[in-house]
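Dear Dr. K.,

Following up on our conversation at the group meeting, I've run the structure prediction for Fimbrial assembly protein from Winslowiella iniecta. I'm pasting the input sequence below exactly as I used it, so you can double-check it against your construct before we proceed with anything downstream. Let me know if the numbering doesn't match what you have in your notebook.
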Amino acid sequence: MAPGLRWAWGGDIQFNTDVLDVEDRNNIDITRFAHKGYIMPGRYLMSVRLNKDVLAERPIDFYPAEDNPDITLACLSPKLVNEFGLRPQPAEQLAWWHGGECLDIRSLKGMQARGDLSNSTLTLSLPQAYLEYQSANWDPPSRWDNGVPGILFDYNINSQLRSNREGSDRRSLSGMGTVGANAGAWRLRAEWQGRRDQEGDNKRNSFDWTRYYAYRAIPRLEAKLVVGEDYLVSDIFDSFRYAGASLRTDDNMLPPNLRGYAPEVTGVARTNARVIVMHQGRVLYESQVAAGPFRIQDISDSVMGELNVRVEEEDGSVQTFSLNTANIPYLTRPGRVRYKMSIGRPVDWQHSVDGPEFASGEFSWGINSGWSMYGGAIGSEKYQALALGVGRDLLAFGAMAFDVTRSVAQLPWGETLQGNSYRLSYSKRFDDYGSQVTFAGYRFSERQFMSMGEYLDARSRRSGMSNSKEMYTITFAQDIKPIDASAQFSYNRQTYWDRPESERYSIALSRYFDFMQWRNLSLSLSAWRNRYSNNRDDGVYLSLSVPLGNGGTLSYNGSLGRGNNSNQLNYSDRRDNGDTYSLSSGISRNGPELGGYYQRESSLAQMSGSVNYQQGNFTSLGGTIKGGITATADGMALHRQNTPGGTRLLLDTDGVADIPVRGSGGAVYSNQFGKLVIPDVSSYYRNQVNIDINKLPENADVSSSVVQATLTEGAIGYRKFAVVSGEKAMAVIRLANGSVPPFGAQVLNLRQQEVGLVGDGGSVWLSGIKPGESMSVHWDGEKKCLLSLPEMITPSALANLLLPCSPVGAAEGKSENQSADYWLSAKSHQPAE
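The predicted structure tokens came back this morning:
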């Protein structure tokens, strides 16, 4: 009989024991089934579910009701109730019992609760009108978790070796990462990067701590406070490096459909290559990529301004181009104000002061459902800039914004420059036509206009300037549904008053189709042109992929560009453990080539490697390892990661190793200490991870396989799964007087997890049997006796178990030898048939 435990006020339940197939009907314990909602008094580790949302697992105390001791009620603590996200009016009506420790659910009309020990779940139902705004995957601030204190070390190491037939061999080792510590809501971070290059006898080494800073979330203001070295984050002004403090509205705290845009870098690698993305000299991303188009989407949305991209091919050639990150028009919801404020002094890469004190601020005010006004200012002793703009939601026609910025700069040699800069931006998605203009913008700056970054450059050089003139940016995507194809186009152009312009545009066409017995063939064509610092790189890339019946893919790749034409056949596949690999053979201008690429996503790190051979020219090897170490008082683990210093979730599997957990990045297994880390968790977003019960070890069971967490930025979240591990066997329990526990008695392990339910004649199916541990047997709402397990458990003993259960007081004084004697004499004490 399964316990369906719905709380209610009243009613004994009578059982007809004649229907039970039990020899001794007078020895039955059904007290926990005798009343609706009855759970024996005590503390239970339970997963709390509010309406359809799962809150964190936690201990729940059950106490007898004050007006009816025959029933028990769960104690909903003030801390748990605060996570409900109640609106102010219902929160004022709450009533409490048990000395003010527990919520009286009758004070919230319509609230219901149901406890279920079979799956360790406490289900709460609450009218939605009582709750703050929520969306499908977003929780109100009352449920945000700052995580636990801890330290972290994240790294990204790249290595390359190139053996040339003629000339010197080349070796390089580079790395970047983040060291950090968390304390409450504060996140302390230090970023590093280093590189070692060797060509022949020439060596060059460098290592820098690139940034020291601390930050925290301020939920009441929907803002983020940053102290230390930072880059100016602005939707109006260009970015520069400074040391100081900033307070800015954090769009990541908003529901997902109201959040902003993060930059995306796309390109094409002609061979297995290394891609490096930099912002003002700081490496943001570095990794090996396989030959073909690549897309980098995990760059922080706080990055503003120009990105420098470097693609280092295996054959020694290098692609370089720049991209300007861009935001959608600066619109704000009606009645809301978004803001950013900063104060400090510019600093250089050596952490030295490189400019005067400054203060900056900007805002965006949602006037009504259609219009937003925004503006800002930067002020220092000899540089000032003021901006004002307006944004308009054009509804079916998209959104548009226009602003004007005026600057006044007093240069060290006595010259004063004044000028204006004008910007127009537009964004629109045409759902009916499958089209999307992600961003389109134009900016014109007068010759004497200077941004703060340009002023600092001119000030440090004391002569010459590099002022921007015009910037064009557009990104467009189109689905061509009749032929199941899509097209993408992007264009960036930057002109200057006193140096050559830079330009990049690319177009990509792709189509899926069937041909004869082959299905889902993919044909794609990419073309690009880069012009940057008087360099020019034009190229065309053609790819045809044919899925094979065994799960692999055969493809042809052809490229044309910079005087190097190549044709290549490639076979790629995914192994059963999730690893991916590819093998290639082709010919280029310099001769025949062979190559290979392998990537593994392990629980400890993400690893990839490549090898390339060109006949009569060179052999090269490359590899990347990305991972991290996270340590807290609750445990530590090695793990993979993509976002250094980012949010993560430490999971505890109750000390049981090799428990498979599925997160956003695939399966991760707990280490020998029963700990694992899910990296790259989305901040302020409801994240759910679960145990893959189909891959559990044979000696493990779980009562609840899902946990959820909504973590603040940079947090180390902690969640614990209730995992029962050990042998399983049928046993018979005997009391000291030779009788058996009553039918329906519970058997609990040391963690107070139910591992068995006593049946007829003292028989019980036990799980979690471990040498040397003890278990307790409960009935009539009390712990009655203890089972002591010996230090050694043999397979033959598991096949035929008789377990003596000693009274609580006597069992505590019984020796291990006596317990073992009872165990080993099991065969001679079997109950009669």
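Two things stood out to me. Residues 427 and 439 are 5 Å apart (CA to CA). The first strand starts at residue 5 and ends at 6.

Best regards,
J.T.
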